[in-house]
Design brief:
The chain is of the alpha/beta class. The protein has a single domain, classed as TIM Barrel (Alpha-Beta Barrel), CATH 3.20.20.70. The protein contains eight helices and 15 strands. A hairpin with a 4-residue loop joins strand 1 and strand 2. The longest helix has 18 residues. 49% of the residues are buried. The mean pLDDT is 91.
């Protein structure tokens, strides 16, 4: 499997590389919260020698309810992300939902993310791939909740045919299992890696209970926060090259997916454990 790099950041992901940490907020709420979260996570990852990429969405376009908070939007959101990037000198990952967003996002984000629900939207995937290729970044494509691991070959083929380059990271985030439930098959980690791409685990979204938050009478997504560390540890043990995690200083007050995100104060303990597991399972 090829190792993917961001030369500007001395960043690499893949076999034989340190465990990559893509972590931050689910959605941008305000600049102060973004800076607070980035400061804490950057410090923890620096202490542990783990590559850190700050993540946050400027828009959550696939909320359950039209009344749900979506974020500050493209212009204001990219401005906040730009200031986080400049202040802490860290790479950024954020997601796109519409073709008109891809150029502006690829100009700022070092890793452009395709959401799981949109991973088969050919025009969006190709537009994001071409913009990211021109900017010299990487793509992070979440496997849809409706796809088998080997189905990701078609996604990779689209990107390779459009750009003639391998620069895609695949992300496992669970598959629909009956109503309002997701499960993660850890055999899928190896299955996706065999396609020639590094693989991350989105442990926070994988514990979601889609459309099943009793607090909003099913107008938002529920979650099982206690399961996030379990899935992250299992996925790293199964060979994941990176983790995608969402934190909040007060998870129960988070404006999106609070039941699935972790308390910021617990980041160090979890990442210490994940690093130790990753070290044990690295190929000799």
């Amino acid at each position: 499997m090829a190792v993917l790099k961001l030369e500007r950041w001395n960043f690499a992901i893949g076999d034989g590389q340190p465990l990559v940490v893509m972590a931050g907020l689910n959605v941008l709420e305000d600049e102060g919260l973004a800076l607070e979260t980035a400061l804490h996570l950057h410090g923890v990852c620096a202490d542990l020698g783990l590559p850190f990429v700050f993540k946050a969405s400027f828009d959550k376009a696939n909320r359950s309810s039209i009344r749900s908070y979506r974020g500050p939007g493209l212009t204001e959101g990219l401005g906040i992300l730009a200031r986080v990037k400049a202040k802490f000198d860290v790479p950024i990952v954020t997601d796109v939902h519409e073709i008109y967003q891809v150029e502006a996002v690829a100009e700022l984000a070092d890793i452009v993310q395709i959401p799981a629900f949109l991973c088969r939207q050919t025009d969006l995937v190709i537009a994001a791939a071409k913009a990211t290729d021109r900017a010299g970044g990487l793509l992070h494509v979440k496997k849809g909740q409706f796809l088998a691991p080997w189905d990701c070959k078609n996604i990779l083929d689209k990107i390779r045919e459009a750009t003639d380059r391998d620069f895609t990271i695949l992300c496992e985030r669970g598959v629909s299992f009956g109503y309002n439930n997701l499960v993660v098959d850890m055999l899928g980690i190896e299955g996706m890696k065999l396609l020639g791409a590094p693989v991350t685990i989105d442990a926070t979204h994988a514990v979601q209970l889609p459309g099943a938050d009793p607090r909003s009478n099913s107008a938002s997504t529920g979650g099982r926060r206690s399961g996030v560390p379990l899935l992250a540890k299992a996925a790293v043990a199964a060979g994941a090259d990176g983790v995608f995690l969402e934190f909040h200083p007060e998870p129960d007050k988070a404006r999106c997916d609070g039941p699935s995100c972790l308390p910021l104060e617990g980041a160090r303990d979890l990442l210490v454990t994940l690093k130790a597991i990753h070290t044990l399972v690295q190929p000799a």
